[in-house]
Amino acid sequence: MLIWGAFIGLIIVFLALDLGVFHKNDHVIKTKEAGIWTAIWVTVALSFSGVIYWLFSSGLIDNPTGLTPNNAVLKYITGYLIELSLSIDNVFVIAVIFSSFKIPPLYQHRVLFWGILGAIFFRALMIVFGVALITKFDWAIYVFGVFLLFTAFKMLKSDDKGFDPKTSFIFKQLKKVYPITSVIKGHDFFIKRMGVNAATPLFVALVIIELTDILFALDSIPAILAITADPFIVFSSNILAILGLRSMYFLISRMLEKFRYINYSLVVILAFVGLKMLFTHHIEIAEWVSLTVISVALAGGVLASLLIPEKEAA
């Protein structure tokens, strides 16, 4: 429990420095700044693999799945890349939500910051539940595998351009529960209008992003559980990827049209981990194979988006 407490404490320090020091004053996040922060978060996450190696070699942490230090590091990096790649799809949806509710770029970082806090809490619950389910019931891994294959198929056939947050079930229910105003006053989530407290578009966007992230977690957490059932590796790789989501959003949200093939990469990744879950008791796939498939799928989607002319793609 000491290691878990230290890790959670480290995350709290990161978040406190982020909002209280580096982003104390609201400002528009430029591409250069977003690129620097993305590099910092990726470096922190990859450097944490050294901590994983130390923890599993020293025996300071419970090792319920009997992992060797080298294997633990490979599983951590693979899990991190899975979550990072699936987060790209989340970026597309966040961009649509901000655009729909006309959230000024000046306040978008603050909305995403509070969204991260909720994401950490809900994902921690889902990870605990998912690990417990797989540990207690062997058949649960097959259920997750089928679900991931279904998700991959649905992603292949879906068209996200039709998504409109203002017509979503979440928005309609929120309007019934609490008064909503279209007025934005600074970075406030609530303001008083004609003597009535009302939620601003910032709060509405926050709620929809939060609940949307839970839906994305239904894909990403089973995907990581296909790599390992070790709770600390699943939690740390997931959370460190989520911490870098904000800077990644500001880095690539302005280039969404250029990454038109990235969805195919995500389909390949989800299909691969789904099949790995279904055959986990029959075929043993080395961790370097999983890492290679995920890396090649991501690189292939990015390169195809950059190299294939848009007219030819159409």
UniProtKB/TrEMBL annotation:
Protein's cellular compartments: Membrane
Transmembrane segment boundaries: 6-22, 34-56, 76-99, 111-133, 139-156, 195-218, 224-249, 261-279, 285-308
Principal subcellular localisation of the protein: membrane
Record's bilayer topology term: Multi-pass membrane protein
Pfam families reported in the protein's UniProt record: TerC (PF03741)
UniProt keyword terms in alphabetical order: Membrane, Transmembrane, Transmembrane helix
GO cellular component: membrane
Family: Belongs to the TerC family.
PANTHER family given in the database record: MEMBRANE BOUND PREDICTED REDOX MODULATOR, THYLAKOID MEMBRANE PROTEIN TERC, CHLOROPLASTIC
NCBIfam families per record: R_switched_Alx
Protein name, as recorded: Tellurite resistance protein TerC
